[in-house]
Write a structure and sequence with these properties.
8 strands, two-stranded antiparallel sheet, alpha+beta, six-stranded antiparallel beta sheet
Length: 351
């Protein structure tokens, strides 16, 4: 730990002073951190703001809310204001109601005495307050657990199916010599250059003909094989010596046993990388589920986010809270497994 701290705090200046290159390095790194994490911090803090605070201009970083007070004779909490002009200047009052440009207020010591002041003579008393109801309201507005189950089922099933199919295809293209192997590999690489939007219409027609429209399997099956996964795994499997496979065949091992007992364990780093990428792809997928799924009970979390946006208005507070909840699982996956991405890609490309 001391070595790490020493490495992070060492400078080029002498006597503990910072050299100009140290200032430039810290400024560059600080700018990078702000650009990467600034939007995330803003999103997280905005998810705790009320609709009134989100509509405020200029915006503020921390969530603020007007202070409320409960007075005798008034059933509902009243907003608190500070009077800036007039006989009550400097005092805090509670607004009972507003009529046009006039505000009817009361003092805490005389809650039954209504005083009229101009709205320009008062300023709201605000405090930093987190609107937790943005998150608790998610479970009451719609079936959150149903959408979470749909997203989890699609992500895990599609990822497992894709890993199996891509690994078998990569095994055949890397370890078997057959007529047309080069053509198949060229087709796989060529598919990488085709945008997804080009195949949406024929893919939708195929899914409809197979009876998988408005079904979770209609989202899962089309992604069972991806050219990116086949190419990535093939490049890694090429590094596995053929002598290991020949030795296994001499011991009467079947091709399936060779694939399951030798190829898959040795390809674990590349498979881990592909699994992490596939989880992020499937979890964040929006366009294809939007096309295939039409019933609300089959929606994923990404589609559920779209329900907060109406034709005339948008529930921004709930939308931001739902966005944070949706990002948490995939952020945790990336946080704990990011080392496999770096090591897997490095070993795949280096070998």
């Amino acid at each position: 730990m001391d070595k790490v701290l020493g490495f992070l705090t060492r400078t080029r200046g002498r006597g503990g002073r910072l050299h100009w290159t140290d200032w430039a390095s810290y400024a560059y790194l600080g700018l990078g951190v702000a650009l990467m994490f600034g939007p995330v911090v803003w999103l997280l803090l905005s998810s705790f703001k009320t609709e009134a605070e989100l509509a405020r201009f200029p915006p503020r970083l921390l969530p603020h809310a007007q202070e409320m007070v409960t007075l005798p004779g008034h059933a509902e909490p009243l907003p608190v204001f500070t009077v800036t002009d007039g006989p009550l200047a400097g005092e805090e009052v509670a607004q009972v109601r507003r009529i046009g440009l006039a505000s009817q207020v009361v003092r805490a010591e005389a809650p039954d005495e209504i005083i009229k002041i101009d709205i320009s003579q008062r300023e709201p008393v605000e405090e930093i307050r987190f609107a937790w109801e943005n998150y608790t309201g998610l479970f009451g507005e719609f079936d959150f657990m149903r959408y979470l189950w749909n997203s989890t089922f699609i992500t895990l099933t599609a990822t497992a199916l894709m890993l199996l199919v891509n690994a078998m295809a990569a095994f055949a293209l890397s370890k078997y010599r057959f007529r047309g192997r080069g053509v198949v590999l060229a087709l796989v690489i060529g598919v990488l250059m085709i945008p997804q939007t080009v195949v949406l219409v024929p893919l939708f027609l195929i899914v409809s003909k197979l009876g998988m429209y408005n079904s979770l399997w209609g989202v899962i099956i089309p992604g069972a094989a991806t050219p990116t996964g086949v190419f990535l795994l093939r490049q890694y499997m090429l590094t596995i010596p053929d002598e290991i496979l020949d030795a296994a065949r001499m011991d009467k091992a079947s091709e399936w046993k060779i694939f399951w007992r030798i190829i898959l364990p040795l390809s674990a780093p590349a498979i881990a990388v592909l699994a992490i990428l596939a989880i992020m792809w499937r979890w964040n997928d929006f366009l294809w589920p939007l096309i295939v799924l039409s019933e609300n009970r089959n929606f994923t979390l990404q589609l559920a986010l779209n329900t907060f946006q109406g034709q005339l208005s948008t529930d921004w507070s709930s939308l931001l809270a739902m966005t944070v909840v949706t990002l948490l699982p995939i952020a945790c996956v990336f946080m704990f497994l990011q080392k496999y991405i770096a090591t897997g890609i490095a070993s795949t490309g280096g070998k």
